Amino acid sequence: MTSENFKKQFLPHAEKLYALAFRLLGNKAEASDAVQDTYLKLWNKRNELEIRNTEAFCVTLVKNICLDILRKRRRNKSLLDSEQAATEHIINKQIEIHYDWIQMQKLIKQLPLLQQQLIVMRHVKEYTMAEIAKQTGLSEANVRTTLSRARKLLREKFEK
Questions:
Q1: Longest Cα pair distance anywhere in the chain, in angstroms?
Q2: Which one of 65, 81, 97 terminates a domain?
Q3: For a disulfide at 46, which of 1, 18, 84, 85, Cβ 3.0-4.6 Å?
Q4: Sequence-distant (≥ 6) Cβ neighbours of residue 155 within 8 angstroms
Q5: pLDDT per residue over 45-78, tens digit each?
Q6: What is the total count of domains within the chain?
Q7: Cα angle 112, 118, 123; round to 5
Q8: Is residue 157 within 8 Å of residue 110, measured between CB atoms?
Q9: No. of helices (H) and no. of strands (E), the chain
């Protein structure tokens, strides 16, 4: 098929194809791209096609291209929605952790001084029981007992 025959056969349908694409996609740029893709596919297959009703064939082709665009748009939207939901969940979790940490700091300050020091040494500075015992002059058993009591108090107060 020559380019002149192609123009005579397919180009008269351009406005109708654009109107259909715009109605399906609701976007001028995407509608224009869909019509362009339609003509590109027609041109590439021009010597292989035996079409009886060119208008119906073009309408079907542009409709299928638009449906592909809509499917892709839906897939991308669902990916974005799931990414946004995951991000919001992470942010909410971080806010919750930060709030809990602030609450815990306030509760630690309400403990007796020795318990405060032991909690900080063990859980903030991550000292071993032996290191804490050495620095405080307490036995390891005494450190464990005092820490256990401090944790119990913190748990009770935190749950309230």
A1: 100
A2: 81
A3: 1
A4: none
A5: 877 777 788 888 889 999 999 999 888 888 877 7
A6: 2
A7: 125
A8: yes
A9: 7, 0
CB within 8 A of 22, min separation 6: which ones?
A: 28, 31
Q: Which amino acid is at 19?
A: A
Whether the CB-CB separation of 133 and 147 falls below 8 Å is answered with: no
- Give the H/E segment covering residue 115: helix 113-119
Q: Which domain holds residue 16?
A: 3-81
Length of the chain: 160
What's the CA gap between 110 and 71, in Å, rounded? 59
What CA–CA distance (Å, rounded) separates 114 from 97?
A: 26
**Residue where the block lists tokens 């592909």:** 68
What confidence tens digit (pLDDT) does each residue in 124-143 have? 899 999 999 999 999 999 99
Answer yes or no: do 137 and 75 share one domain.
no
